[in-house]
């Protein structure tokens, strides 16, 4: 399979997911600030999920740009990642509608965790295909940021059953953590 086809398919899925996620937002009933406040939790969840989808799209773009060859394992790993990302609209709506409920908050975190694992698998397969001495492998290094993110998601999931707001804060913190671009990967792609 050509790399461009995988990129185009993935970009299409990202665009659809963002569109579906925003369609879950409903206008408040009324014109007062209190009416607007009633949809605030769902809106904040939407913003967080939009950030995550944007972060994954950006990193996915750089990862595939660095990839020279695609094989079946990479295709399936990519589909695995897209599966977990496709659950974002559902968990965004559920956690937003029930913003202080433990189970939706924990499930939101579980989807974040499983998406991070799927991204790690995809990244690992691409690095294996490129070679351990490739510029991509050097740029990603030990991937402390990715591993720390997965650890934080996994830690926040049980916390959600006792203090959902702490788990939500961890999810937001990890998103902010990823908003800072990784200059090493951008540099490696320039040199490639």
TrEMBL record:
One annotated GO molecular function: proton channel activity
Main location group: membrane
Catalytic activity: K(+)(in) = K(+)(out)
One Gene Ontology CC term in the entry: membrane
Pfam family, one: TMEM175
Recorded superkingdom: Bacteria
Signal peptide region: none
InterPro entries the record matches: TMEM175-like
Ranges annotated as spanning the membrane: 35-58, 70-91, 103-122, 151-180
Membrane topology: Multi-pass membrane protein
Family listed: Belongs to the TMEM175 family.
Record's protein name: Potassium channel
Native species: Methylacidimicrobium tartarophylax
